[in-house]
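Progress note, project year one: complex with magnesium ion.
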Amino acid sequence: MARFTRVFGVPKLRVDFVRGLRFRLTLSYVFFFTVLLVVIGLIFRKNIQSEMDGDVRTALEEEWGAAKAYLRIENQRPFWFADPSDPEEAYIVTRLEHVYLVTDANGEVLDLSETYASIGIDSRVEVARILRLPQPEVHTRWAKDGVPYLIKAGSVPDDKGRPYFFAIGRSLEASHQTVQRLTENYFILSSGMIALSCFLGWVLAGRAIRPVDSVAQTAQNITGSNLSLQIPLRGAGDELDHLIDSFNRMTARLNLSFEQIRRFSTDVSHELRTPLTAIRGQLEVALFTAETPEQYRDAIVNALEDVQQLSSIVRALLLLSQAESGQLVLQKTPLDLAKVATDIVDQFQIPAEEKGIQLSATIEAGALISGDRTQMERLISNLLSNAIKYTPDSGAVDVRVGLDDSPGWARIVVRDTGVGIPAENLPHIFDRFYRVRNAQTNLAQGLGLGLSFVAWIVEAHGGRIDVSSTVDEGTRFTVLLPLRSPTLESAEPEHSATVQPLA
Ligand code: ATP
Ligand code: MG
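Model obtained:
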């Protein structure tokens, strides 16, 4: 059995903790802080280590100088030549005796300390290499128990001037232990700081994100019916304010579109209802009261006129939806705007005369464009129909067609002495279904589609349209269209069509 449940409302999106901005912000903050601490710690450790090793090396150099003064080798026998009653000399010699080795040139050990034995006696090859060096050599070696020693090895002469291998050393253990202790302390402290940074990062990220939550909260309260709701700016002038501002602008635009659609639905139903009610009334009257064929005929003629109006509204809507969806393909041919304009102006002479409006035209030759004749006629008729519609009786409408001052452009100007358009309405008149609402324009019928069509046609021909208007003085529409390129010059096919303005 098939089942269907209609769900109302969309379930709210839950923020995944791990993917959440707060978690990721904290994580990156802690990560960079940790890397920074580790790098600083390592650099610090290396510097302290080399500083302390430097001290040991200096002490070793001093001991080397002292050792050369106190060491004597006679008859293959090394001994320390120092005054045992001098406590200072005795102390120095005791220190020297701690880590030392003396061998003959063949590497035969003559004397060594216990500690040196645990470090490892130098091989014959090593002894020979050191003896060949012009200067003593310093290097680090590790004893069996893992203690590092700085060793200085070189050659010393015996009483007959024969070279002997001699090496002394100093333990690096104290300095290494100090550095080790410092490092341990540093990293224990660092882990505490990292834990603290986690906490602080979490709190700070939470504070940074809080406005986003409040924005999301407000945004959730915005629905189709209260699109005018604006999220208040925080005044911080930061990216979030920028986002809120963009969001507010978006809802304002949506609100405008919704408003237009709403107004359009009302307008359409109103526009359709009027002729429908009239048709129904006429037919009902005819059905119940008409007796002669003439009376039936009159009723049918009246009903037909209203049907005509209905179909023009439907046609306008259909055309607009085709234009919007790109189904209305332009049939561009070489076109003389002068001819098109003359035809249309002629068509409007009678409606203009009926209103007592003086319709004049100044048509210059040379405005040759590549365009769709039907759409060009529609463009001029819509501008002219507006000019006549929004000009009170005994006003004037003037049409000018010719070349523009800027080379390569044709120009159509439609000027009237009508009611004008208030400055605040001017930016919207090309919007779909937009009509200026005031006492003067309310009298005129229309859907507010004519100028959106005009704008679409101008754009589709690569042109531009300007409007300037003064309330109670008149309006002037200027259309510029690119002239046909001379290479496309060919005879214009003769055809004509009568295009009604929209509505
Ligand atoms: P439609 O053309 O669809 O029958 P409409 O004439 O009201 O209806 P548009 O031609 O798009 O719609 O014009 C939009 C609005 O711009 C009009 O409602 C009118 O208020 C204003 N407008 C247009 N042309 C003029 C004009 N020449 N003088 C004064 N107002 C004008
Ligand atoms: Mg119009």
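DSSP finds ten helices and 14 strands in the chain.
The first strand starts at residue 71 and ends at 74.
No further modelling is planned for this target in the current period.
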